[in-house]
Amino acid sequence: MATAIAIIMVIMVMFVVIAIQETSSRLAWSFARDEGIIFSKYMQRIHPKLDVPIFALLFTWLLVFICGLIYLGSSTGKSVIMIYIHLHLRQQISEAN
After folding, report:
1. Distance in angstroms (rounded) separating the CA atoms of residues 45 and 32
2. Which residue from 54, 56, 81, 83 could staple onto 28, CB 3.0 to 4.6 Å apart?
3. How far is residue 46's CA from residue 39's CA, in Å, rounded to a whole number?
4. How far apart are the first and last CA of the chain?
């Protein structure tokens, strides 16, 4: 019984990961379309046959992969990423006001 529940959970996680990857790549594509992100010239391209933003997908995957390696590599690296994100968000909020 426990094995069946674990298999169901793994399958659900796979679907969720695919949905999150698709959503974040579409968000990166929309930022690139408005020229609000680095390499926007390349990331705003849509693959003609697949009709998906392939470069935004690859960029998002690469970014998640690198952050995952840093997170697995050391707790100091994870702390640096979290502090940077926190400070960047604070700066954006203060500039908006």
Report:
1. 9
2. 56
3. 14
4. 54
Reply yes or no on whether the pLDDT at 59 is more than 70: yes
pLDDT tier at 5 (50, 70, 90 boundaries)? very high
Burial 5-38 (b: 16+ CB within 10 A, else e): eeeeeeeeeeeeeeeeeeebbeebbebbeeeebe
Report the C-alpha gap between 58 and 68 in whole angstroms. 15
Task: Note the pTM of the prediction, 2 decimals.
Answer: 0.63
Model pLDDT, residue 43: 87
* Residue of 41, 25, 44, 24 whose CA lies nearest to 33: 44
**What is the tens place of the pLDDT at every residue in 86-95?**
888 888 788 7
Q: Which two tokens stand for residue 55?
A: 């470069």
Measured over the CA atoms of residue 76, residue 81, residue 85 and residue 91, the dihedral's sign is: positive
